[in-house]
Amino acid sequence: MKTVLPPSCPMEALLRVITGPWTIYILWVLSEQGPQRFGAIKRLVPGISTRILTERLRMLEHAGVVWREQAMTIPPAVTYGLTERGAELRGMLDTLGAIARRWEDEGIFAEVRSGTE
Amino acid sequence: MKTVLPPSCPMEALLRVITGPWTIYILWVLSEQGPQRFGAIKRLVPGISTRILTERLRMLEHAGVVWREQAMTIPPAVTYGLTERGAELRGMLDTLGAIARRWEDEGIFAEVRSGTE
DNA sequence: AAAGTTGGTTACTTTAAAGTGCCTACTTTA
DNA sequence: TAAAGTAGGCACTTTAAAGTAACCAACTTT
User: Fold this and answer.
1) B4 touches chain A (CB under 8 A)
2) How would DSSP label each residue in chain A?
């Protein structure tokens, strides 16, 4: 999603971090289930490919939202979890989720879907 | 961004409404400048094409975030504005924007960009 | 009489991103 | 002995979305 930022806008930058397929769901999993290993996350996010999961976790790590801890064993055991910044994001996502659920109850999204398909 | 919704998730649905290039900026313009006519919005969102602007406004209208009022004059005069639901979204976007600005001050996004380019 | 205004639509092209499949190197287990 | 699990990497294909450009109706102004 390479957006031509209309003006330089921190909001667009933040949205680039949290949007895109799977991202929110990955954060949700780490938030609800606590720190998890790569394979566990993959199982908790059914359908995601390893490539995309790796990419998203790396991006979230760069953004300081997720930490990564690698045990140098063989095979390696890599664990991911939410940082403080991630938790901060989580509170906001809860608000977002509350609005989303209210809208869903009001039947908004069905219309949106039918309007864009 | 046709997302394979992992589980049925209202949050993903909401994000489909507010994300994508220009969308947030359009909402911001309507929020700050009040209701505007099509041409005015186009001028206030420099660089956007009429096709994308039309598509976004239609989508936001379907989502009940924006209202549309067409005067059947010639040439037609079409005005768009934020609905109550749009205003509700606006409060949330303010929160989002506050977090975004704080992160920007902490220099997060530069890293994210360099990490994904 | 020609050009401009307004709010689009339609068709075509381009591109960024997501998906898919195959590979590693080592260990444990069946 | 071979299969499966671990955490990815790499190359190729596919596709959805954005960009680009041309066109339209109908009326007004120059």
Assistant:
1) yes
2) -----SS--HHHHHHHHH-STTHHHHHHHHHHH-SEEHHHHHHHSTT--HHHHHHHHHHHHHTTSEEEEEE-SSS-EEEEEE-HHHHHHHHHHHHHHHHHHHHHHTTHHHHHHHHH-
The Cα-based distances of B82 to A80, B51, B69 in angstroms read: 40, 20, 12
Does the nearest atom of strand D lie within 7 Å of A60's Cβ? no
Distance CA A69, CA B47 (A): 43
The answer to the question of residue B88 being in a domain is yes
pLDDT band at A68 (very low <50, low <70, confident <90, very high): very high
CATH of the domain at B43: 1.10.10.10
How many domains would you assign to chain A?
1
Mutate to test the interface with A, among B28, B58, B99, B102 (most CBs of A within 10 A): B99
* Distance from the A117 Cα atom to the nearest Cα atom in chain B, whole angstroms: 10
**Span A17-50, pLDDT tens digits:** 888 889 999 999 999 999 999 999 999 999 999 9
Cis peptide before B6 (omega within 30 of 0): no
- Any strand D atom closer than 7 Å to A72 CB: no
Chain A, 65-84: which have a CB under 8 Å from a chain B CB?
A: none
